[in-house]
Write a structure and sequence with these properties.
Structural class: mainly alpha
Mean pLDDT: 84
Number of strands: 0
Radius of gyration: 27 Å
Strand content: under 5%
Distance between the termini: 104 Å
Order of helices and strands: HHHHHHHHHHHHHHH
Number of helices: 15
Largest sheet: none
Helix content: 40-55%
Shape: elongated
């Protein structure tokens, strides 16, 4: 009987579930009737440990969960290493996932189990039945990691910017609570919301003059509350000044500013005839 189960039933389930990831509970509910059948045929009590069914020294039944883990991760690694259309499509989907989740580098490297659980609650519609995110979750929850050894592509997904992410400063709770507003403002790094010297936090209206922000200023009210939460977390006192807290200032780079942090420099006079306003003295 174990031969029939391992050779006929398991491959059939694996084939039908090629594009979906079954949860641990779903795998257990699928195999539960077969376990009961085997226990009944062998004269075992219903309370007998399920491990007896799957131990090689006893009945050696394959487990749906273990089989899925092996099959899915093997196929996923093949996808990632493919140099043709399959690999290109997978990389494009990783880029799309990175943009959706506001990540600064490869989702394969930066996502954690807790992050994925929270992202799935926030982006419920976008991540529903996402084969890519479910594969990453399956890999992470079982302790598997991947590493890119290709020097040409290793840093392609890294977003250039400051070393300090907003998430690291405000904490997971505030970050995930306000991630939709941060996405609207396109804010990822702490550096983006500080002055050039890194001592003060920008005021709310200054963010809408930054080139990285594509969110219309007429919709300020949609993100105002989130901005106030950031101020309360970053500023010493949001009502009396713009100075950031000492513990945050201490981790900010104090080198000379190497960029204008999204500030768009425009000439004072844009009128072609503006030279006429100047007079000789």
């Amino acid at each position: 009987m174990s031969f029939i189960f391992n050779v006929l039933i398991i491959p059939k389930v694996e084939y039908r579930a090629q594009m979906i990831i079954l949860t641990e509970d779903e795998c257990n509910s699928l195999i539960a009737p077969f376990r009961m059948l085997y226990k009944n045929k062998m004269g075992l009590a219903r309370t007998a440990p399920n491990a007896l069914m799957h131990t090689r020294e006893f009945y050696n039944l394959k487990n749906f969960s273990d089989n899925q883990l092996q099959a899915k991760l093997t196929n996923f690694i093949i996808q990632l290493n493919d140099n043709n259309e399959l690999g290109q499509i997978t990389r494009i989907r990783l880029y799309n996932l990175q943009e959706l989740l506001l990540l600064v580098n490869d989702p394969l490297l930066s996502l954690t189990v807790n992050d994925i659980i929270k992202y799935k609650k926030i982006f419920r519609a976008q991540l529903k039945n996402s084969f890519l995110i479910e594969n990453i979750f399956l890999m992470k929850i079982h302790g598997f990691e991947v590493k890119n050894n290709n020097e040409l592509t290793k840093y392609l997904m890294n977003v250039p910017g400051d070393d300090i992410k907003i998430k690291d400063v405000v904490g997971d709770e505030i970050f995930f609570k306000n991630i939709l507003s941060l996405k609207k403002l396109n804010i990822v790094f702490l550096d983006q919301i500080l002055t050039l010297d890194g001592k003060n936090m920008l005021i709310f209206k200054e963010i809408f003059n930054k080139k990285y922000n594509q969110f219309g200023s007429h919709n300020k009210s949609l993100v105002k509350k989130s901005w106030e939460e950031l101020e309360n977390k970053i500023l010493i006192n949001s009502e009396s000044g713009r100075k950031i807290k000492k513990e945050i200032y201490d981790i900010v780079s104090h080198d000379l500013a190497k960029n204008l942090k999204g500030t768009d420099i425009k000439s004072v006079a844009t009128d072609p005839l503006s030279w006429k306003s100047f007079v000789a003295v």
